[in-house]
Design brief:
The chain has helices at residues 12-30, 39-49, 56-67, 72-94, 110-113, 116-135, 143-157, 162-172, 180-205, 210-237, 240-243, 249-252, 258-262, 264-280, 290-301; strands at residues 103-104, 107-108. With 304 residues, it is mainly alpha-helical. The radius of gyration is 18 Å and the shape is globular. The protein binds geranylgeranyl diphosphate. Geranylgeranyl diphosphate binds at residues 53-54, 56, 86, 89-90, 92-93, 105, 162-163, 166, 190-191, 231.
Length: 304
C-alpha cells in the first residue's frame, strides 16, 4: 500500500479518529485468535490492546510519517507495534505485584477480567509480537530499516528506557522523595522513551537525514515531559470517570511527582513552556508539521 497518509490539511480530531480506526483495524487482524487452547492469551491481548485508549503513540507515528510521505501501510504497522508495547506496559503495571489496579481505560484491568497468570502472558505476548510486526516485510521492504526500527524500540522499551524507568519508580516508593532532576530522568525513561520512538519512527521508515531527526528528537524530548506533567496533574485534578483509571494514586503512595514538588500552578506553567519549546523544534518542517504542533497542545490540555 503506497497511498499517502492523509489529506494535506487535517484537524487533530479527524486525524485522531482516523488513527484509532486504522490502528485498531491492523491490531485486530494481527491479534486474530488461533483455533487452539492458546486462544485465551490472544483474547486477553485483544482485550487490552483494543480497549478504548487515546492511541496517542500511533497518532505521533502517523503525524511524524506524514512529514516524510511514508506509505500508510508502513506507518500503521509501526503504530500497531508501538501500541502493543504500550498495552503490555499497562497490563504489567496494573498487576498486583506493581500498582495493583482494578480499573484501566474505564474497564476492569486485564488480570481482573482474566487472571494474573493470563495477564502476565498477555503482556509477554504483546511485547514479543511487536518485534515480530516490525520484522515483517509488510512494515518496510528494506531489512536495514526493519533492523533499525527493532533496535530503536528495544532500547526505548528496555532497561535503558521504559523498564528501567519503571524499576526506579518502584524503588522510589521505598526511599526518601526523589528530587526534580531524578524525577525528570525517571520519567524520560519510563514514558518519554516510547513517546520519543513514536515521534522518530516515521523518520526511520523514510531513511530521513540527521537534521530532521534531531529536530524530531528535540520535539519528543519536550513533549514527553509535558505529557508526564499533564498526567501528574490529572492524577490530582482529574476524576476516574474522565481518566478511566483510579486518581490520587501518586499522593496515596506518597510518590514525589512534578506536581508534588512544583505545585499545580507551576507544574502547569512548566508543561506549557515545554510545549512551546517542543513546537519550536518543528520550524524547519513548516506547515507540514501542523499536526505535530496540534498534538503537542492537545497533550497538555487533555482530560483523559
Ligand atoms: C511494566 C515495564 C512496565 C512498565 C510500565 C508506562 C508504565 C511503565 C506504566 C504506566 C503507568 C502510568 C499511568 C504512567 C503514566 C504515563 C502513562 C503511560 C499513561 C498512560 O498513557 P496514555 O495516557 O494512556 O497514553 P491511554 O490509555 O490513552 O493509551
Amino acid at each position: 500500500m503506497t497511498e499517502s497518509l492523509w489529506p494535506d490539511s487535517v484537524s487533530i480530531a479527524d486525524a485522531s479518529a482516523m488513527t484509532v480506526e486504522l490502528t485498531d483495524e491492523v491490531l485486530s487482524l494481527l491479534l486474530a485468535p488461533p483455533p487452539g487452547m492458546e486462544a485465551r492469551v490472544y483474547e486477553a491481548m485483544r482485550y487490552s490492546a483494543l480497549s478504548p485508549g487515546k492511541r496517542l503513540r500511533p497518532l505521533l507515528v502517523v503525524a511524524g510519517s506524514r512529514l516524510f510521505g511514508v506509505a500508510r501501510r508502513s506507518a500503521l504497522q509501526a503504530a500497531a507495534a508501538i501500541e502493543m508495547v504500550h498495552a503490555y506496559s499497562l497490563i504489567h503495571d496494573d498487576l498486583p505485584a506493581m500498582d495493583n489496579s482494578d480499573l484501566r481505560r474505564g474497564r476492569p484491568t486485564c488480570h481482573k477480567k482474566f487472571d494474573d497468570a493470563t495477564a502476565v502472558l498477555a503482556g509477554d505476548g504483546l511485547l514479543t509480537m511487536a518485534f515480530e510486526v516490525l520484522a515483517h516485510p509488510d512494515t518496510h521492504g528494506d531489512p536495514g530499516v526493519r533492523c533499525e526500527l527493532i533496535s530503536a524500540l528495544a532500547v526505548a522499551a528496555g532497561g535503558a528506557g521504559m523498564v528501567g524507568g519503571q524499576m526506579i519508580d518502584l524503588l522510589a516508593e521505598k526511599m526518601p522523595a526523589l528530587d526534580i532532576g531524578a524525577i525528570t530522568r525517571l520519567q524520560r525513561m519510563k514514558t518519554g522513551a516510547l513517546i520519543a520512538f513514536s515521534c522518530e519512527a516515521g523518520a526511520i521508515l523514510a531513511k530521513a537525514p540527521a537534521e530532521p531527526r534531531t529536530a524530531l528528537r528535540g520535539y519528543a524530548h519536550d513533549l514527553g515531559l509535558a505529557f508526564q506533567i499533564a498526567d501528574d496533574l490529572l492524577d490530582v485534578e482529574g476524576s476516574a470517570e474522565e481518566t478511566g483509571k483510579p486518581v490520587g494514586a501518586d499522593a496515596a503512595a506518597g510518590k514525589a511527582t512534578f506536581v508534588s514538588i512544583l505545585g499545580a500552578d507551576r507544574a502547569r506553567a512548566q508543561a506549557e513552556l515545554l510545549v512551546d519549546q517542543a513546537v519550536a523544534h518543528l520550524d524547519l518542517f513548516g506547515q507540514r508539521a501542523e499536526l505535530l504542533r496540534q498534538v503537542a497542545r492537545f497533550v497538555v490540555n487533555r482530560r483523559t
